[in-house]
Design goal:
alpha+beta; 26% helix; 19% strand; elongated
């Protein structure tokens, strides 16, 4: 028995990789499947494979783009939809992103400046907490 997208009412079980792609939490279905295989997707705090089924009410955790996204499924989709419609299919419970002031600026060396000098290496070691002096 095959189902078409027209038969889908928003409450049926759908593969997690398809749902993540359809609601635009990842760019491609392949990225969603790779995240599942890599252990970066959890449904109700259980690591899942790409073929795992998701239904309304499930809590989904996704680690992508150096950020954790936590959502509760409201509706399931089989086809990718526009962003305004996609946002109605889940409730975003993600933690707030820390501001740049809290995270601090990442120290960078000017491009083409060569290898760090011995003095600069010592300063870097002190900054990283690896120094014994």
């Amino acid at each position: 028995m095959s189902h078409s997208a027209a038969d889908h009412d928003g409450s049926a079980a759908v593969r997690i990789d398809v749902w993540l792609w359809a609601v635009r939490l990842v760019k491609t279905r392949g990225d969603a499947a790779a995240a599942c295989r890599g252990g970066h997707v959890r449904i109700n705090d259980k690591v899942v494979k790409p073929a795992a089924q998701v239904v309304p009410g499930d809590a989904v955790r996704l680690w992508a783009n150096h950020r954790e996204t936590v959502v509760t499924v409201e509706k399931t989709l089989l086809k990718r939809v526009g962003a305004p419609i996609a946002k109605t299919c889940y409730v975003d419970n993600s933690p707030e992103r820390p501001s740049w002031e809290v995270m601090g600026a990442v120290p960078m060396r000017p491009r083409g400046s060569g290898r760090p000098t011995k003095k600069e290496r010592r300063q870097l070691d002190r900054l990283r907490g690896r120094s014994s002096y």
